[in-house]
Design brief:
By secondary structure, the chain is α/β, with parallel strands linked by helices. It contains ten helices and eight strands. An eight-stranded mixed beta sheet has the order 1-2-4-3-5-6-7-8, with helices on both faces.
Length: 260
């Protein structure tokens, strides 16, 4: 079922809550500039394995409200904390893909774990996001020709072949976002760093990263693995930045093993 949760006056986030009666809960944080719908190929499978799957569209993206401000990691983490509080979640697994991984890391450090029992960082945009060069190019494109920018994102996102139909679907996820929120996150990815957050993560952490990732280099996953004490790194040999789809069966089975 889908519903809205108010995170501050006049701003609601969209939440997709699948199999709410299940015993174990997984919360999914999507990547930029997508929505919770990127996890379709997890939502098809994991609820049938007995998991409650909660997909949250962060502010500015997907079906959530799109205010002009609030696109720093602190505010985005605060939004997630509000949703977790309203839904009274505890002892859950938190999965963050790309920028969602950065938000998850800030959530962990800002809220001392905030009810999370297991953390999954999937092609995470951490400890840094975009270089200034990449960010400034994407920012210029975003503000002048967003469809071209979105096509460039999908062209570099995957290592595996994607059909034209899949590319079109993927681009449409990005177009659900507001132009201003799309641009604001590019600046956050350029300007914010997460080094000081990493030592504060204490829960078991699974780091999954495509070795062919052209968006966030694999070396960053190795760095996360070194700096997060209770972590394991699983390289995905046939993935770029989209391991959740490119090796979906492997990823889903790995989640099942990790969460138990």
């Amino acid at each position: 079922m889908g519903y809205y949760v108010s995170v501050e006056s006049g701003i609601k986030l969209f939440v997709e809550d699948i199999n709410p009666k299940a015993r174990k809960t997984i919360v999914f944080l999507h990547g930029w500039p997508l929505s919770h719908k990127q996890f379709e190929y997890q939502f098809n499978v994991l609820p049938a394995m007995g998991y409650r799957c909660i997909g949250i569209d962060w502010r500015g993206f997907g079906k959530s409200d799109k205010p002009v401000s609030g696109y720093d990691y602190n505010r985005l983490a605060d939004d997630i904390r509000t949703v977790v509080g309203v839904l009274q979640l505890d002892n859950f697994t938190l999965i963050g893909h790309s920028t969602g991984g950065a938000i998850a890391i800030r959530y962990m450090s800002r809220y001392k774990g905030g009810g999370v029992s297991n953390l999954v960082l999937l092609d995470a945009a951490a400890p840094i996001g975009f270089t200034s060069e990449t960010a400034n190019r994407l920012l210029t494109l975003s503000l002048n020709d967003r469809p071209k920018m979105m096509q460039e994102v999908s062209d570099t996102f995957f290592f595996q072949y994607i059909t034209p139909s899949f590319s079109e679907w993927f681009n449409q996820l990005g177009f659900q976002a507001a132009g201003w929120s799309t641009a604001a996150i590019i600046m956050t990815l350029r300007d914010e760093k997460l080094y000081s957050d990493l030592p504060k993560i204490a829960v078991p952490t699974l780091i999954v990263h495509g070795v062919h990732d052209k968006v966030i280099p694999f070396q960053q996953a190795q760095e996360l693995n070194q700096k997060i004490s209770n972590s394991q790194l699983v390289p995905f040999q046939y993935s770029g930045h989209g391991a959740f789809w490119e090796e979906r069966d492997k990823f889903n089975q790995l989640l099942k093993q990790f969460i138990g």
